Amino acid sequence: MARAISNRKKIMWTALSWGIGLLIFFPILWTFLTSFKSEATAISDPPVWFFFDWTTQNYSDVLERSNYPLALMNSIIIAVGSTLLGIIIAVPAAWAMAFVPGKKTKDVLLWMLSTKMLPAVGVLYPLVLIAKYFGVMDSRILLIVVLMLINLPIIVWMLYTYFREIPGEILEAARMDGAGLKNEIIYVLTPMAVPGIASTILLNIILAWNEAFWTIILTTVNAAPLTKFISSFSAPEGLFYAKLSAASIMAIAPILIMGWFSQKQLVRGLTFGAVK
Amino acid sequence: MGRITLDKVQKKFGEVEVIPPLDLTIEDGEFVVFVGPSGCGKSTLLRLIAGLEDVSGGEIRIDGKPATDLPPAKRGLAMVFQSYALYPHMSVRKNIAFPMKMAGMDQAEQDRRIAKAAEALNLTDYLDRRPGQLSGGQRQRVAIGRAIVREPAAFLFDEPLSNLDAALRVGMRMEISELHSTLKTTMVYVTHDQVEAMTMADKIVVLRAGNIEQVGSPLELYKAPRNTFVAGFIGSPKMNLLTGAIADKHNATTIGIRPEHLDVVESGGTFTGRVGVAEHLGSDTFFHVHIPEMSEPMTVRAGGEVGLRHGDTIHLEPRAEHIHRFDAQGLRIA
């Protein structure tokens, strides 16, 4: 890449990217600030930026009025559970498609992706009826299965792309070196695919954590994760902006911190293996 | 011991027959080169021997034992790939140790063999590096090291030098030949480069469209090519193949004259033409001579410094004892 970029252009692009970055970050910042305001300051016009009486009252109110630990636990179990279940199913599937492709492999992949284009409401009734029939409404297991099914196409696609990056000759070399299928998978394929599997897990935990449509509809109390926890503060009576913000911050903080620490893996995951 | 026998070995991909039933014996300790243009099936044939592809028919025996249905891991062969195919997540040491680890060899013996191989291949200082930190030539050496430590029945090389630059290629060619004379193990080597084939092989197998065109020592192939394909493929620059009146005179459909078997004469001569492009190599000069009655220019080898210039008229006389004659089917007439 020998493209000469003048200093002025460099400054312009840098400013632009910072601008876009801040734009995206602004809602989180505003929610963060609002969560420390009193309900009255939160809706004041013109808005107050930094100079108000900072209070943690909202946080203690939220913790008092609702069961945050339960919601947090539910979120963790549902996000991690659905992702791991998805990985267990997707690894052999992606493996087969990447290394022993058939004539219809491409069609199967596209068909799986097409299910992501289906509007979720389209299967709302059937799903609710099925869940009711089996008596699993408002249960963690239901959400784990549903979220796993929803994200499965993405998990398979991501793993498939990673596996495809592994040159077949290296696997053949392992075979020539005396490795049977089991040793080939343990000593050669898996270590080479670990970064890919890790990124896939991270990205899907985030997707499952943020999933709001199904988690809000299919839960009431017992299995309610943090998404439901937030929405319960957007009461029709309104005027609870500060508490809603506090609840939101508490709900997104864990995933934000996790994302921060695993930025490198995530970027790799989001580019679907394009960056080597 | 590494005698490899192919008995009516055949390979089909779906309906397409890549290798029609073929017989071939590779003797123990021989350096055999499969050579041919791309797509001639030479790599497929090697992969059939390796077990990386399943045969569609026929039988493969290694040391007299049937190997047709054995997985690659059980055939006792080692392979060096064009892309080196090193394990990127392992150090050089672990790469070389891998086949011994798979064989369950004890650690002391592994260490001894690694040290020996590393010394022979100049890799001692690089044992703790990853393949990504090595140059192309070093990676190739690691791949060879990984192949030799297990002391296989035979080595299979799949165009191992194609990814190296010209200077390194010549050096590695020598090293592989050297390795063969020290180890005296059977080696099967695939290349599309006839110079590699000529310089390294005990026995060359020329392939075209999955068929064996000729099997023989480099000089046999050079002196007595069995047909026009082998005649044109072996030797550099290519043999001049001529048809028409000149061939009729020799009672043949096609005659072949190598560039080195044409003498430049003062006057007369069988051919008279105009000098075209000249390639000066220092030791030799190759002239392309345009002869009015022929569609293709003829190539002539002359000494290093000849006073011939573009456009000059030149007279050529072939050496009668070196004229190859071929019939209408392109087969050699004895």
From TrEMBL, chain A:
Keywords linked to the UniProt accession: Cell membrane, Membrane, Transmembrane, Transmembrane helix, Transport
Places the protein is found: Cell membrane
Topological type in the membrane: Multi-pass membrane protein
Gene3D superfamilies: MetI-like (1.10.3720.10)
GO cellular component: plasma membrane
Top-level lineage group: Bacteria
Keyword Transport tagged: yes
Protein name according to UniProt: Sorbitol ABC transporter membrane protein /mannitol ABC transporter membrane protein
Source organism of the structure: Loktanella salsilacus
TrEMBL record, chain B:
Domain called ABC transporter: residue spans: 4-234
Recorded GO CC terms: ATP-binding cassette (ABC) transporter complex, substrate-binding subunit-containing; maltose transport complex
GO-annotated molecular function: ABC-type maltose transporter activity; ATP binding; ATP hydrolysis activity
Chain ranges passing through the membrane: none
Domain of life: Bacteria
Keywords: ATP-binding, Nucleotide-binding, Transport
Family of this protein: Belongs to the ABC transporter superfamily.
Protein name listed in UniProt: Sorbitol ABC transporter ATP-binding protein /mannitol ABC transporter ATP-binding protein
Species per Swiss-Prot/TrEMBL record: Loktanella salsilacus
